[in-house]
Amino acid sequence: MTTINLPIFPLPIFLLPQGVTRLRIFEARYLKMVSLAMKNKGFVIVTHDNDEKNNTVQVGSWVEIINFDQGEDGILLIDVRCKCLVDIKAITQDQDNLHHGDVAVKNHWPEISLDQTTDKLATSLCKLFRENTELSALYPKQHFEQADWVVARWLEIIPVELAEKSLFVNKDSFNQAKQLLQRIILSEDKI
Fold first, then answer.
1. Using an 8 Å Cβ cutoff, are 94 and 5 in contact?
2. Which residue, 32, 9, 49, 50, is CA-closest to 165?
3. Are 60 and 46 in contact, with CB atoms under 8 Å apart?
4. What's the Cα-to-Cα distance from 54 to each of 10, 50, 120, 138, 167, rounded to whole Å?
5. Judging by DSSP bridges, how do beta strands 99-106 and 4-11 pair with one another?
């Protein structure tokens, strides 16, 4: 398995393949990270929760920068999309306190067709996207016909502990993720 060294950005964000998020970049070390990411192949977001005692990072989201902007406060805004998940083999820190990791691509869910449950999840997600223009704007291409895409987007946005979400980074975790969402999302739709 080939490894590559990439900058690491610890954040309380959970992002699966094809997921998009907007980041505010203001610290010097992360401005350096953006510069390195533009020259090279992106960077890795590792799910890190400051409130959790055990943040033993082993998997991250390899992201590419897809858009730049500047907020009204002058802070750099970047939109990033997850290319794939990666296993993190080793982490070092440079003189600017920026972390770097040796990473290898990790297989995740294959493309999965909709079934009865994921079709209902897709309908709910589509409604959420229509109601939330900021979220919808992050995804010019939306794939409500793909169960894996629908389940991944729901996992990214539901208010569940990051530690629980991290259970769904394995390639065989799709059915468990779907069952969790069925309990949370579809049971709320009946109320």
1. no
2. 49
3. yes
4. 14, 9, 35, 31, 14
5. antiparallel
DSSP state of 166: G
Task: Assign 105 to helix, strand or coil.
Answer: strand
Token reading at 82: 């997850």
Pair of tokens at residue 43: 């960077």
- Check residue 50 and give its pLDDT: 62
Q: Which residues fall within 8 angstroms of residue 63, CB to CB, at 6 or more apart?
A: 15, 42, 43, 44, 45, 80, 81, 82, 83
- pLDDT tens figures, 33-69: 999 998 889 999 998 876 555 445 689 999 999 999 9
Residue 35 to residue 29: CA distance in whole angstroms: 10
3-state secondary structure of 96: coil
The whole-number pLDDT of residue 74 equals: 86
pTM for this predicted structure? 0.90
Q: What are the distances in angstroms from CA 12 to CA 22, 42, 131, 137, 159? A: 13, 19, 24, 22, 12
End-to-end CA distance of the chain: 48
Read off the tokens for 120: 């209902």
CB count in 10 Å sphere of residue 113: 10
Residue type, 146: Q
